[in-house]
């Protein structure tokens, strides 16, 4: 083979292998990412900013649906997802038996679940839901005893403390400051493991995790405003949580 033909052969082989390498790289990147269904709706929040955050979370691929669509899905549709991220709320009517079963079935299947912010006050009359989340925010309408009613603090700047620095959800996180809506005087299940807190005595733990049936569950208190959704530490926290529960 002449030097010319040998060089041509090498070039042609490179042309063939480069697209194959790129295709394999793309496939590897896709499979190595955590696949997440994002469920939102039922309460106001900074919608575009939340959706923008979800679409750029590190190591995560998302499909965004509204709460009504989630409730209509069959269990086999969740097989493509490693985790579900909830920013939804229903505090006005009793959930159907089908929806209650869906939540429970997801935990039986071991689908990872991450709940944000006002999900804590959803389903005020369904204790099983709050067993899954790990806590409950007590709405005034459903809580005659005023001393038991939960509190909230709008646009509050909080110095967030990492309580468990060895947990996968807090990996790479240091104490940070963020501004959002925070809660106090809430109920927490004794089984939860606090991950984030603060020095503010009026606030509850800011994030926790627990195991429910076969699912890993994480609750993160902030998640209402643009200030939260653009906070680098918050974005890392949510990304870490989804990867952790999705394993």
Describe this structure in words.
This protein is of the alpha/beta class and 247 residues long. The chain has seven helices and eleven strands. It has helices at residues 3-32, 47-55, 67-72, 97-109, 127-133, 226-229, 232-246, and strands at 34-41, 60-66, 83-88, 112-116, 135-136, 151-162, 176-184, 187-188, 193-198, 207-212, 215-220. Strands 2-1-3-4-11-10-9-6-7 form a nine-stranded mixed sheet, sandwiched between helices.
Task: Pick out its properties.
247 residues, alpha/beta, nine-stranded mixed β-sheet, two-stranded antiparallel sheet, 7 helices, globular
Main sheet specs: 9 strands, mixed
End-to-end Cα distance, whole Å, is 53 Å
Low-confidence stretches are 20-30
- How big is the Rg? 22 Å
What average pLDDT do the residues reach? Answer: 91
Any idea what the shape is?
globular
Tell me roughly what share of residues is in helical segments.
Answer: 25-40%
> Into which percentage range does the β-strand content fall?
25-35%
Report the count of strand segments: 11
Structural class: alpha/beta
Give me the side-by-side strand order of the main sheet. Answer: 2-1-3-4-11-10-9-6-7
Number of helices: 7
The sequence of SSEs as H and E is HEHEHEHEHEEEEEEEHH
Give me the secondary-structure topology.
Layout (H helix, E strand, L loop, with lengths): L2 H30 L1 E8 L5 H9 L4 E7 H6 L10 E6 L8 H13 L2 E5 L10 H7 L1 E2 L14 E12 L13 E9 L2 E2 L4 E6 L8 E6 L2 E6 L5 H4 L2 H15 L1
Parallel strand pairs: 1-2, 1-3, 3-4, 4-11
Antiparallel strand pairs: 5-8, 6-7, 6-9, 9-10, 10-11
Overview in brief:
This protein is α/β, with parallel strands linked by helices and 247 residues long. It has seven helices and eleven strands.
């Amino acid at each position: 083979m002449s030097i010319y033909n040998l060089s041509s052969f090498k070039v042609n082989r490179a042309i063939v292998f480069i697209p194959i390498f790129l295709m394999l790289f793309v496939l590897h990147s896709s499979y190595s990412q955590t696949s997440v269904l994002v469920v939102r709706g039922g309460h106001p929040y900074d919608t575009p900013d939340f959706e923008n955050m979800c679409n750029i979370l590190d190591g995560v691929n998302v499909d965004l649906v509204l709460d009504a669509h989630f409730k209509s899905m069959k269990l086999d549709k969740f097989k493509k997802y490693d985790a579900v991220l909830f920013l939804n709320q229903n505090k006005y009517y009793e959930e159907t038996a089908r929806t209650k079963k869906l939540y429970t079935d997801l935990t039986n299947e071991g689908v990872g679940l991450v709940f944000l912010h006002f999900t804590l006050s959803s389903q005020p009359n369904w204790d099983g839901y709050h067993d899954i989340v790990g806590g409950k925010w007590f709405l005034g309408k459903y809580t005659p005893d005023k001393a038991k009613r939960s509190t909230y603090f709008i646009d509050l700047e909080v110095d967030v403390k990492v309580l468990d620095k060895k947990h996968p959800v807090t990996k790479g996180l240091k104490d940070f400051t963020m501004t959002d809506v925070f809660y106090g005087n809430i109920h927490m299940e004794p089984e939860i493991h606090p991950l984030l807190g603060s020095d503010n005595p009026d606030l509850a733990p800011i994030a926790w995790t627990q195991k429910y049936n076969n699912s890993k569950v994480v609750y993160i208190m902030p998640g209402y405003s643009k200030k939260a959704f653009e906070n680098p530490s918050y974005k890392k926290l949510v990304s870490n949580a989804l990867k952790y529960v999705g394993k």
